[in-house]
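Complex 437.
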Amino acid sequence: LADKLQNALSKLKSKGKVTEQDLKEVMREVKLALLEADVNFKVVKDFIKTIKERAIGSEVMESLTPGQQIIKIVNEELTTLMGTSQSKLTFSSNPPTVYMLVGLQGVGKTTTAGKLGGYLKKNGKKPLLVAGDVYRPAAIKQLQVVGKQLDIPVFNMGDKVNPVNIAKAGVEHAIKHGNDIVILDTAGRLHIDENLMDELEGIKKEVRPQEIILVVDAMTGQDAVNVAENFNAKLGIDGIILTKLDGDTRGGAALSVRSVTQKPIKFAGMGEKLSDLEPFHPDRMASRILGMGDVLSLIEKAQANFDEKKAMELEKRIKSQEFSFEDFLDQLQQMKSMGPMNQILEMIPGVNSKQLKNLDIDDKELVHIEAIIQSMTPAERRNPSIINGSRRKRIAKGSGTSVQKINSLLKQFAQTKKMMKQFSDMEKNMKKGGKMK
Ligand code: GDP
Ligand code: MG
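Predicted structure with magnesium ion bound:
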């Protein structure tokens, strides 16, 4: 999704003047990107309408940087769509505070129960986990393992007792043992069914949870929206935890669950580890969707320095797996006009400063690097693995450098290539995330 939105918006970014036709075309692409990412149709329609209305406003179109203004509006509206500000958990004035986790099977309820417990424990609370899933084999054991890892007590009554009674007994246990938080893990089904809903309703009536939290798997796209709508209609939910946002996710779920249910996303699961839970920040999610790392400013910088066609070629090369010394040379020459190398590489998502240190590209070195590459034969440029000892000596002589320099360049090149591959893999993941199954 991010990839598609960036593509659409980067077209605007460079424009000094945006016509209504430009806006229409870009909005069409934004709309398609959102729909393909499984964002709910109605949500998309409203979203596009709002942006158009705000963008057509005269002060935007007539400002000096209309393209950037529109990107700003898209960013703001994305943030609004996901809830404007971070929404915190609420606590009962009459402890224990009961949080009831509900959701389909496999979305991450049990894991999230543990994560949430760990999070609250770190914040000075004394949580109790209650094993209310009596259907899934080994579900109780799973929660016990999680509890043990976090050193949080787990209450269970085996799998022969009605979950409503387990919930009730769990709360009583918490009161007796001084636990101010009860996190109730419940059963899920592959699909929403009446029995599941009846059971959850029974628990709700019995223990009156402070919050019913719907756990939603961010990877399930449009399905997540239907599930959220259903749970909210039948059970009434108070908040959402979005899991698996670390993976190959469609951004769509995050965008639509909130706007369809009007209930806040409170946390995001960012991995399988029990520490991988983060408060959900709508503004950060919007920025993440709009641009991983800082692709937009990289494109902007490129466009400022050489013409658009060349920038696109560069982008293609960066993404390409077949990256040869020939491309490297070409790219070096183009990049020289953009500013210091490290600064440019820093803007590529997935590149961290540690990798940059390893790369250690000094701008003064660029002259030498150019000379070295120019001393290579075309075959060597395409396939550096053939550059053996005697070839290295020849290239060193030809470029007026040393074998040492050749060695270090070959090493740098291999590292760069690895980095480019990471970048392109990441891009591919984002693309996959944006396509319908
Ligand atoms: P439940 O059936 O809803 O209780 O789901 P589980 O808690 O058993 O989780 C199902 C699977 O999803 C497990 O393999 C978890 O490790 C995994 N999982 C849960 N949350 C996350 C998350 O935020 N990121 C990732 N990558 N995996 C998660
Ligand atoms: Mg479970």
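The longest strand covers residues 211-217.
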